Amino acid sequence: MPGLFGKGAGMSLLSLQNLSVRYGASTVLHDVSVTIEPGEIVTVVGPNGSGKTSLLRAIIGAVTPSAGRVTRKPGLRIGYVPQRLHIDPTLPITVERFLRLPGPVDKRACLKALEAAGVPDLAARQMSGLSGGQFQRVLLARALINLPDLILLDEATQGLDQPGSAAFYRRIEEVRRETGCAVLMISHELHVVMSASDRVICLNGHVCCEGTPEKVSSAPEYRALFGSGTGGALALYRHDHDHAHDGACDHDHAHDHTEAAE
Amino acid sequence: MILDDFMMRATLAGLGVACAAAPLGSFVVWRRMAYFGDATAHAAVLGVALSLALQISVFAGAMAVALVMALAVTLLTGRGYAMDTLLGVLAHSALAFGLVAVSFLSGIRIDLMAYLFGDILAVSTGDLAVIWGGAALVVGLIGWRWSGLLTSTLNEDLAHASGIDPKREKLILTLALAITVAVAIKVVGVLLIAAMLIIPAAAARPLSRTPEGMAFAAAALGAGAAVIGLRAAYMFDTPAGPTIVCVAALFFVATSLLGSVSRAG
Questions:
Q1: What is the H or E stretch that residue A22 is in?
Q2: Is A11 on the interface with B (CB under 8 A)?
Q3: Does A213 sit behind a cis peptide bond, omega within 30 degrees of 0 on the bond before it?
Q4: Taking the CB of residue A175, how many other CB atoms lie within 10 A of it?
Q5: What distance in Å separates the CA atoms of residue B153 and residue B149, rounded to the nearest whole number?
Q6: How far is A60 from chain B (nearest CA, A)?
Q7: CB–CB of A126 and B209 under 8 A?
Q8: Closest CA to B60 of B44, B40, B71, B74
Q9: What is d(CA A90, CA B252) in angstroms, rounded to the nearest whole number?
Q10: Burial per residue of B26-48, b for 16 or more beta-carbon CB atoms within 10 angstroms, e otherwise
Q11: Model confidence at B6: pLDDT above 60
């Protein structure tokens, strides 16, 4: 039974039950059940087009599921860091003003969130003048500003170099330690995020498998290929899909996910 | 009474339109809806023709057709045609149907030019009330939804995550656009409404650091263009609506130069 990690369902921050999402005739997610517990870091991996972003969009309510349910803990506060945020150059906006959207937030909270995201000195800068790494950290600061119970990150380090994204994910881990929030993130950079994740979910239209990173990185084929120094990244991409899938899957199950590994 | 002076009425009408156009125009610029504004304005000609035929208020007729047009575009977007194609079809058909419809109204002598380019010097006290009422409605509507509008302009998913429905915000902009078109017809005419939306906002961009700052700067520049444009039209005996737009365009050139100088320096 993939996805049912939660013991007390009433305690979960978020639970998706048999969720399906379709865009027109194509089903991008079907029968996905995932539960997020307080304080855990969960990483979703999967090839392009596997429905990772649709999963997050269903959680925030941007797409309506065609079947299944999204159950949030009452009063759940979500901080969301989108995959891409293009700010039109015609729109002037300072970092501080951006952090205040949409709710009224006092200046101290803005500065605190920027500090938590690791960029304390940017408040007066224009969003359009930030570097890629600064921009992503400002997005993180905005997600942190209302003290969320759950942070959703959709490939938040896209466009950052490896040290930059490693630092970003270390920051996420620190934030989790400091605030106790749960984190659900999508990433292609398994080698960076694996060590920080409590749980990894492999998605390809449905939940193919999930487990702790340790379990995956101790797999013999992983050790044979990569030794133990890379944090288990590619092992997950090479695992066997030998379990049976029920329901109609019309996609190719022979994927080896290497395109996403980079 | 002060409103007895036609120049005073014209100036007040121009200021009213500038105030409504500034915040809305900023969103039109940020969301790249310039052509959308144009299409909605062109459709208003059909509204003018219909309201003259039915003998109802031109404001009401123009607003109703502008609203139908804007809603049609919003609903049809993403159904097989590119946005600009769709707008091109709808805008020019509405304008053409409007012009044809006007020609059927042989019984009523109307000056088509007055609706195409505005007739700000003929603004009555009643028109003023409608213009200022409409402007207050637009400013109130946008001010009330400001945060939601801004968040969904930045990113729709970000808006969803904050519990804001971007579709509803878009509808509010659409409504504000229809009202603005209706009140601006008399001042600048349907062909130049989009200019009053876009040019002051674009001219305000190099002067601004925040979205609010840009909306206020756009209002100031639009108001300045209205006042100076009217004086210039009076002095040089030029058509008032186009002269106002010319002044706004000069502002745009000036602030753009200023912006590139300060960037270089």
A1: strand A14-23
A2: no
A3: no
A4: 21
A5: 6
A6: 5
A7: yes
A8: B44
A9: 13
A10: bbbbbbebbbbbbbbbbbbbbbb
A11: yes
C-beta separation of B76 from B84 below 8 A: no
Gyration radius of chain A's alpha carbons: 19
Is the ipTM above a cut-off of 0.95? no
- Helix pair angle (B240-264, B193-204), 10° resolution: 20
Q: What is the pLDDT of residue B264?
A: 63
Alpha-carbon dihedral sign for residues B91, B93, B99, B104: negative
Interatomic CA distance for residues A6 and A11, integer angstroms: 8
DSSP code, position A228: T
pLDDT tens-digit map of B81-102: 777 788 888 888 888 988 888 8
For chain A, report the end-to-end CA distance as a whole number of angstroms. 30
- By the 8 A CB rule, do A178 and A171 touch? no
What does DSSP say about strands A150-154 and A78-81: parallel, antiparallel, or unpaired?
parallel
Q: How far apart are CA A116 and CA A147, in angstroms?
A: 11
Which of B:100-139 have CB within 8 Å of A? none
The residue behind tokens 């039209």 is B233
Contact A76, A14 (CB under 8 A): yes
Q: Which of residues 147-206 of B touch A (CB under 8 A)?
A: 147-148, 150-151, 153-164, 202, 205
Judge: A103–B210 Cβ closer than 8 Å, yes or no. Answer: no
- Measured CA to CA, the distance from residue A154 to residue A60 in angstroms comes to 12
pLDDT in tens, B193-206: 889 999 999 999 99
CA distance B110 to chain A (A): 40
Q: What is the pTM of this model?
A: 0.82
Among B147, B156, B209, whose Cβ lies nearest the Cβ of A94? Answer: B209
Does an H or E element contain B260, and which? helix B240-264
Q: What sign for the dihedral angle of Cα A146, B158, A138, A177?
A: positive
A199-212 per-position pLDDT tens digit: 888 888 888 777 78
pLDDT value of position B231: 93
Contact criterion met (CB below 8 Å) for A68 and A20: yes
Answer left, alpha or beta for residue A188, where phi above 0 means left and psi between -120 and 50 means alpha.
alpha
**What are the CA-CA distances from residue B92 to residues B20, B44, B116, B190 (Å)?**
25, 11, 14, 12
**Backbone phi and psi for residue A133, each to the nearest 5 degrees, phi listed first:** -65, -40
Dist CA B255 CA A90 (whole Å):
14
What 3-state DSSP class applies to A119?
A: coil
- Are residues B199 and B246 in contact, defined by beta-carbon separation less than 8 angstroms? no
